[in-house]
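Quick start: what a row looks like.
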Amino acid sequence: MKRRSFLLKVLGFSTAAVTAHTLAIGRAWAQIMPFSFWKKSGPPPPVYVTVGSAGTSFVSATATTGSWTTHTTPSKGSGTWTRVRWNGTSFCVVTNGANICAISSDGKSWTAGTMSSSSAWDWLAWGSTRFLTVGTGTAAATSADGLSWSAQTLPVSATWNSVTWNGSVFCVAGDGQDVCLSADGVTWSTSRPKTGTANWHVSSIGSRLVAISIGRSVATSTDNGASWTAQTDHPFGFGQFSNPKKLITGSSGTILTTISYSEDKVATTTDGTSWTSGTLPASRTWKDAMWDGTSFQLVSGSNKNYFSTDGLSWTEETMYTSVSFAGLAYSG
């Protein structure tokens, strides 16, 4: 300390002056590079995002009553928002009746994109490297980023009920007898889960595809849809105006099915061969379902959402407002 003071005196500086100068430099750097600059940044905390068909997104970290905030989505033109999905970095939402889509990293700030055409874009899935959505007839589209889309053509025409990715192929099912299969969303083939049976919905348990028809038939495939095995019928008979909605859970490998039109029935399976049935706490028009890593989440056409750890015992929550909710996704 004495040696430093001696050198400063020789050079004509005082200890107090040097100390003051050093502190001034530190304050200047603190203004230029605040502490937040040096903090290690990471991904934002996971959130639930649902989209109202009218043009609003709703975001929550817990999906519980009172936790939802509202945010404005881009103009959807003459269409309505239908389905929202997460690809690991962005939420993507598509429209029915317009060529408009949008992406967001947090569900709050959105960037509009352009679809390949206007169609009844509804079912949407992420398949490792690209989104796939299907419209009416043979219309399909793929996108790597959810903003720029390429038109694709399905090998058969139908009113499509669902699309899933099993880790190797997209499988698209509709009101016909055939399901469509593709590894990339560009080159397609078809197969029939059960000859003479139509109106299928499809999901997956790991790589196993599970197809369910409105007439209760169930079929499974372990070779990416090339061949199918008939299984025990689903416990519910879906009427002409009822559609089963299916969902694969993440870790526990369970498919959840509900009946979409004002029903309170639910059933689960871990293999597509046997089913456990239960009852939801209310009859709702069910819009979408998902698994967040610990629980099932259901969103309805009202301001109610529901969660369950086993798909059989449910808790009701109230969302922000009573609107027609379209899709539901989670970024965790």
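That is the whole record. Residues 44-330 form a domain with the Neuraminidase fold (CATH 2.120.10.30). The radius of gyration is 26 Å.
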